[in-house]
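To assess whether the prediction recovers the assembly geometry, we first specified each molecular entity separately, as shown.
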Amino acid sequence: MKTCKIGNVVIGGGNKIAVQSMTNIKTEKVNEVASQINALALNGCDIVRVAVKDEGDALAVGKIKQLVKVPIVCDIHFDYKLAIKSIENGADKVRINPGNIGCEENVKKVADCLKMHKIPVRVGSNTGSIEKEYLSKYGKNEISLVESALKNVSALEKYGVSDIVISTKASDVPLTVKAYRYLKSKTDYPLHLGVTESGTYESGIIKSSAGIGALLVDGIGDTIRVSLAGDPLPEPIIAKKIIRACGLDKNYCEVIACPTCGRTEWDSAGLAKKVEDLTATINRPIKIAVMGCVVNGPGEAKDCDIGIAGSKDYCVIFKKGEIYKKVAFNDAEKEFIREIEEIAKSL
Ligand code: SF4
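The predicted structure of the complete assembly is given in tokenized form:
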């Protein structure tokens, strides 16, 4: 399995799944873009992509890099000169397809520049950019998506580039999943996962979770981008949650909460949300349960390190399914958080 180094972040070969996002401000606006990149990094983003549309954007990359710590990927369409300018200005990686930068000579120039600066490149396809020859041969499906991406890989390999990341994104979830599964069977380059144009906040989260999640559970994918229409700041938060839900990062407080039912006599869902917020910065593998009733709750959450279940008048705190102590309703929240912090300290 190949690895790939983007600035100080290594992806592939079993390294942790890197979270990516993309700025949505004209790259030339150095200070605004740098602030957005720093805000994305605070939200858990490991790598940030910027669009390079013209020379002003390419030149801004060097200045932005002085104001941020995360690696920067430059996204270029059509113009090989912008790719070269971005690389010369410090891009840690570029996203470009040899298929859309013109003649062989242009491809060779970009390849030589990538090798000279020792930086990786992402090539790939999405349903809007499938090569005509594959579209007419196979139609719009996983085979044409993958063959298109691999054609771009070969175009760079021909000139000695082997530091490559590949993507095959579709906005259709089943097609995205099929394409990456097929791609994985044909290559050992690191893979960048995403469901493209996945939509507005809620549908984007749902489509990304279904598509990226299915692949991560299968062990496919080395870096992910959740794309949501509009503000990118929530993207890395959602991406991290997907990675955690797939069991690939256990260093956090996982809060299990029962759905509540007719037996529930207190606001257990409200406390679950509060506990999730209050433990968000505890980066330790602790499984916490907040359950609706004292009768069934502890038993239903046996595999949790610690839990709480309530009735109208009091709560019980339990550990590994066994009742640990009974607490007055008003002290429950404070006492529960204190117990969780004690567990975190002991780990
Ligand atoms: S823990 Fe109790 S309140 Fe919650 S769903 Fe189960 S039975 Fe219902």
